[in-house]
């Protein structure tokens, strides 16, 4: 890689051993992916927000960096809380969580605690170069905003946040942002998270170009989150909707797509568990990625004057929840018997006792893929099962 004189000085230890190790990490990563140089970033987003007792190395390295007095050099946000206070077993696994969060905040990280970082605290513009490490945030930034980031790994994200640099490869380059799989839709009743789940499995790490459909922002968020979970998709295009998809020729770069697939209504419906299985679940979890204020407000409307029939959990980003708590709808949700949290539902529910008997129904394609013991239903299915719609 071609380094500037300042970058070379850092690599050679001229500004301390810890900063040199950060630079070595980026140089080795860049060399592995054939990056010619390092480029400045506008912001970073970190994935390592959990203090898991069985992990050691990451936390030791983080402590070294903090002890050396290093700070992030660009605006940097952080993934959600792990649900430390949700259950006794969570407090056991995540003991040390408060110290871990203190270290990250000492590093200069913004304590937003949300995978939906782009809603409030970390709002990039079209074309901005980023170093983000959360799959649903990465795919949203690339696809919906038109910013540019690869899907980075634990600790490499911190190194980039400290140095304010990232290796130039992958989705930072025009040629890697083109559509590779042409996706046609034969759908009457859209279910965006289910579509994302299916496309992740079918496209794997290839960028899909989807027929025009008037998805709203929440649908794009939840579809992308599912796509990035069930596959390794880092970017998608929707014809005439997302910023880099004005027409098919532009997205495909004047070439033919590698593959063309059609998603039908039957495909979407087959992902949903049958009604009997849905009703047999022990609990309902909504909000993965975490809900925005608009989403939680819309969902909350269904709970007014109702009483839930089974354990029902809503998960919202902390900043949105603070605003929502000031509304009358917040009290109505609590009166219904539903619960509202700001932690990550995946980590919060991963340690539930008796997973086989404590199955979870969710309208989240992302949570359905990651969390053991889930059944999928669209939002209407889920609201019916928890008893707030007929």
Fill in the keyword field for this structure.
alpha/beta; Aconitase, domain 3; 3 domains; five-stranded parallel beta sheet; 18 helices; 14 strands
Tell me what the structure shows:
- With about 400 residues, this protein is α/β, with parallel strands linked by helices.
- The chain has 18 helices and 14 strands.
- The protein has a five-stranded parallel sheet.
- Helix 9 links the parallel strand 7 and strand 8.
- It is globular.
Strand content: 5-15%
Write out the strand line-up for the largest beta sheet, numbering strands in chain order. Answer: 12-11-10-13-14
Q: Kindly state the number of beta strands.
A: 14
Number of separate domains = 3
Structural class: alpha/beta
| CATH fold type of the largest domain | Aconitase, domain 3
SS element count, helices: 18
Average of the residue pLDDT scores: 95
The biggest beta sheet is recorded as: 5 strands, parallel
Give me the CATH architecture of the largest domain, please: 2-Layer Sandwich
Shape: globular
Percent range of helical residues: 25-40%
């Amino acid at each position: 890689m071609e380094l500037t004189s300042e970058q070379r000085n850092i690599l050679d230890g001229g500004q301390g051993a810890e900063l040199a190790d950060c630079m070595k990490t980026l140089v080795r990563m860049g060399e592995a992916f054939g990056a010619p140089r390092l480029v400045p970033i506008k912001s970073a987003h970190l994935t390592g927000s959990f203090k898991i007792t069985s992990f050691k190395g990451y936390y030791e390295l983080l402590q070294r960096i903090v002890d050396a007095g290093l700070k992030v050099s660009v605006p940097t946000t952080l993934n959600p809380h792990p649900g430390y206070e949700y259950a006794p077993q969570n407090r056991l696994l995540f003991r040390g969580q408060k110290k871990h969060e203190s270290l990250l905040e000492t590093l200069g990280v913004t304590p937003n605690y949300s995978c939906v970082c782009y809603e409030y605290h970390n709002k990039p513009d079209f074309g901005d170069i980023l170093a983000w490490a959360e799959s649903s945030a990465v795919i949203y930034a690339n696809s919906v905003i038109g910013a540019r980031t690869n899907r980075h790994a634990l600790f490499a994200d911190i190194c980039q946040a400290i140095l304010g640099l990232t290796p130039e490869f992958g989705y930072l380059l025009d040629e890697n942002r083109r559509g590779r799989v042409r996706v046609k839709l034969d759908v009457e009743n859209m279910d965006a998270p289910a579509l994302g789940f299916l496309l992740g499995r079918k496209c794997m790490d290839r960028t899909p170009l989807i027929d025009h459909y008037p998805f709203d922002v929440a649908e794009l968020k939840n579809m992308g989150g599912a796509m990035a979970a069930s596959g390794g998709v880092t970017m998608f295009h929707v014809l005439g909707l997302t910023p880099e998809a004005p027409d098919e020729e532009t997205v495909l770069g004047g070439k033919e797509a590698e593959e063309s697939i059609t998603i039908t209504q039957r495909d979407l419906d087959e992902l949903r568990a049958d009604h009997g299985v849905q009703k047999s679940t022990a609990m309902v979890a909504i909000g993965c990625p975490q809900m925005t204020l608009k989403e939680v407000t819309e969902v909350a409307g269904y709970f007014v004057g109702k009483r839930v029939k089974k354990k029902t959990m809503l998960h919202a980003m902390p900043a949105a929840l603070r605003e929502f708590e000031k509304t009358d709808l917040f009290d109505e949700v609590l009166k219904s018997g539903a619960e509202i949290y700001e932690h990550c539902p995946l980590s919060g529910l991963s340690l539930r006792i008796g997973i086989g008997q404590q199955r979870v129904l969710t309208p989240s394609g992302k949570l359905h893929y990651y969390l053991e013991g889930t059944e999928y239903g669209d939002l209407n299915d889920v609201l019916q099962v928890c008893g707030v719609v007929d």
